[in-house]
Amino acid sequence: MEDIKQRIEQLRELLEKYNYEYYVEDNPSVSDAEYDRLMQELIRLEDANPEFKSPLSPSQRVGGMVQDEFKKITHKRNMLSLANAFNEDDLRDFDRKVREIIKEDKVRYMAEMKIDGLGMSLLYRNNLIYAATRGDGVVGEDVTSNVITIKSIPTHINEEDELEVRGEVFMPKASLNKLNEIRKENNEPLFANARNAAAGSIRQLDSSIAASRNLDAFWYYFVNAKDFNIRYHSDALNKLDELGFKTNKERRLCNGIDEVLTYIDEYTKKRQSLKYDIDGIVIKVDDMSLYDKLGYTSKTPRWAIAYKFPPEEVQTKLLDIIFTVGRTGKITPNAVLKPVRVAGSLVQRATLHNEDFIIDKGLMIGDIVVLRKAGDVIPEVVRSIKEKRTGEERPFVMIENCPVCGAPLSKVDAMHFCTNPMCLARQIESIIHFASRDAMDIEGMGEKVVEQFFNQGFFHNIAEIYTLFNFREQVIELDGWQSKSIDNLLNAIEKSKSNSMEKLLFGLGIKEVGEKMAKTLSRKYLNLENLMNASEEELLSIPDVGPVLAKSLTDYFKDENNLNLIYQLKALGLNFSYLGSTSQSASSYFSGKTVVLTGTLSNYGRKQASEILENLGAKVTGSVSKATDVVIAGVEAGSKLDKARQLNITVLNEDEFIALIK
């Protein structure tokens, strides 16, 4: 038995060595056939001797573990994001501030590729303890079973002390192309870019799916390097190399900001030739002993910055302009474009916002236009290239009637609206909004499901969502639906009935009533029927309620169709009352105060803390001013805390905040 155990350990050690040679050094010392022979021997021995099995064995890199959900992991140290620089001036400003703080004429920086993937943290104590996503920077998800399928990641290192390393899991360009070819053959939607594909793969509950996606990873931050008496970031990366981690060899030490700019210029040109996607360059002060002195803002370290490449611009043809109808009846013109690849994805549509936007840009149908992605995400038409016109282009003419129901349009400021409240397009959009996360949060009822059920006639308005159970058997007959999936949806619909008033109020889609205003009104009136009876004058007495909003509310509640809808929802058992604390709000320290949150709280996320404060009667804002009453400062609070002290505003730490809310 001892011989078997020793052979298993020997095979694991050999296979990990060969994985490192192949996937990290790109220099294999054995043939694929020999590697496969050793792997099959290991699998046979582990299957025959299950007491020696290990989740970190090389045999587990093929995946196979299926989970119900991902556990939450609180990071030992917050995973902060980086401030962005978009041009040379931004970078020189960053350099100037660093030099002013450390009192040096020139700073040594490490310049590295900014990998376009999914941020990840690994924790080791000899063996890999866990792999966690960034999450909100404080709490991430345990995705260890998927991460160990990435063969370049070591499951064991020769270091017994605790070690944390952070980096980026990504999908190489070749893997993305191969994956999309397979998905195209199976009539599955294609991944728009490598970042989405990597994130989607890591969040699969079945690890065999992640294993099949051929992901990779680069590691760029040895978090607790100081515990190992390492002073420089460059030395920390070299140490990670020694321990078997895959680091990016395109990095470069730069003596001063001018050398950084030269590096950026070089890799802006090389960007497309790399085997992986990058969306910028990260610049870090190399001397880590300066990090505490340089400090942090509320969200970002002051010793590093991310230079973002300018948006990629391409040219394509504007084939047509079509119109869509939103839930409020707003008509939006959209560009139909000759398909073109930009920033990693194929683009065929782009919003043109409104009539004035098109006129200001001077767009004509048939124009060659310049297209880019704002923030590398949203396609936008930048301009037309008038010198490429042939004379066959057609001028744009704004429509006068709704493209769906034919009702006449009305114009308010720059926007056009369908005047028919029963327009089918408006109904679909209103249902999508009602079911969305920030409104009634009906899990499983996304845009495609709403459109499918609406077209099948299962519901025509938001009230009929709650009678969907009558069509259970018909739903099961549709492609992609089974008993379990429709029952899960029906349970989510039933659960939404008990939501607090503000969720329902926001879900109704009343013009000018956003998520925050819905909370304010709910706390004030406590019940939807009380709000329905409020006059314009009474509404105007509420802070932040102006004439436009007051009129929008009273007009909505005067409309017979809207009243009938509300009475239907009441009859169907939806809760109309505000479920937040009111007695606590009236007596709370925070009642009536304007509060700003800054830094990171260890016990609450920013949204959760804001909700607690709002439920206690506070107004939460994003910036510090003379109107601010209280600033709650978490870890790594920055400029907002400085400004609060300058203005002599009350500052609470997290313990004081918790004591007051309890």
Describe this structure in words.
37% of the residues lie in helices and 21% in strands. It contains 25 helices and 24 strands. Helix 24 (639-646) links the parallel strand 23 and strand 24 (650-652). It is of the alpha+beta class. The strands form six sheets. Strands 12, 13, 14, 16, 17, 19 and 20 form a seven-stranded antiparallel sheet that branches.
Helices, strands, pairings?
Blueprint: H1 2-24, H2 32-48, E1 72-74, E2 84-85, H3 88-102, E3 108-115, E4 118-125, E5 127-133, E6 139-141, H4 144-147, E7 163-170, H5 173-185, H6 194-202, H7 207-212, E8 216-222, H8 233-243, E9 252-255, H9 257-270, E10 278-285, H10 291-294, E11 304-308, E12 314-325, E13 330-342, E14 345-351, H11 355-361, E15 364-365, E16 368-374, E17 378-384, E18 394-395, E19 409-412, E20 415-418, H12 424-435, H13 447-456, H14 472-476, H15 483-496, H16 501-507, H17 515-525, H18 528-532, H19 536-540, H20 547-558, H21 560-571, H22 583-587, E21 594-598, H23 606-615, E22 619-621, E23 630-633, H24 639-646, E24 650-652, H25 654-661
Parallel strand pairs: 2-11, 21-22, 21-23, 23-24
Antiparallel strand pairs: 1-6, 3-9, 3-10, 4-5, 4-7, 7-8, 10-11, 12-13, 12-16, 13-14, 13-20, 15-18, 16-17, 19-20
Helix pairs in contact: 1-2, 12-13, 16-17
